[in-house]
Design goal:
Number of strands: 2
Shape: globular
Number of helices: 6
Length: 100
C-alpha cells in the first residue's frame, strides 16, 4: 500500500511539473484555468453542471490525450471522479464525442 501511495504522489508531481514546465501551463491543451473551471463539475457528492468556462476549455482540449488519464489514480487523488469527467463533453453539448 505504501508503494501505491508513493506512485500516486510521483505521478501527481509529474503531472504538476508538466503543467508548470511550459509557459502556457496546460495539459492536453487544457490550461490550469480550464482545469480549475471544470473541477466543480467532476468532484464531490453533488457536482454542479459545467460552467461556460469549463465547456470552453473542454472544446479546446485534446480529448484523446485526456483519455490517457481515464484510469489513472491521479484523478482520484485530486478528488476528480473519472466517470463524471468522461461525461463533460456530452454535458457541454460538444458535437463530437470521444470514445476512450
Amino acid at each position: 500500500m505504501e508503494a501505491y501511495k508513493r506512485l500516486v504522489i510521483l505521478v501527481a508531481l509529474v503531472l504538476a511539473a508538466a503543467v508548470a514546465a511550459n509557459g502556457q501551463s496546460s495539459v492536453c491543451r487544457m490550461t490550469q484555468d480550464g482545469l480549475t473551471a471544470c473541477k466543480p463539475a467532476v468532484s464531490g457528492q453533488n457536482p454542479v453542471p459545467p460552467s461556460p468556462a469549463c465547456c470552453a476549455a473542454i472544446s479546446n482540449a485534446d480529448m484523446q490525450c485526456l483519455c490517457t488519464f481515464k484510469n489513472s489514480p491521479i484523478l482520484s487523488y485530486l478528488g476528480i471522479n473519472p466517470a463524471m469527467a468522461m461525461q463533460l463533453p456530452a454535458k457541454c453539448n460538444m458535437a463530437t464525442s470521444t470514445h476512450c
